[in-house]
């Protein structure tokens, strides 16, 4: 597998991981307080 071809695959994957990571962190911090109150009640 040529390096140029590998880089073409790695770049979008890295970008997707970065976007998903950002979305996941925002989603996590948005849901964290709700989960905490639920776990405290239970």
Model description:
- The N and C termini lie far apart (53 Å).
- The protein has one helix at 3-41.
- It is built from 1 helix and no strands.
- 93% of the residues lie in helices and 0% in strands.
- With 42 residues, it is mostly helical.
What's this model, at a glance?
The protein is mainly α and 42 residues long.
Structural class given helices, strands, pairing?
mainly alpha
Total strand count, please? 0
Query: Helix proportion of residues, in percent?
Result: over 70%
Radius of gyration: 18 Å
Number of helices: 1
> Largest beta sheet, briefly?
none
- Globally, the shape reads rod-shaped
Low-confidence spans: none
Query: Mean pLDDT score, rounded?
Result: 81
The arrangement of helices and strands along the chain is H
| First-residue to last-residue Cα separation | 53 Å
Q: How much of the polypeptide forms β-strand, as a percent range?
A: under 5%
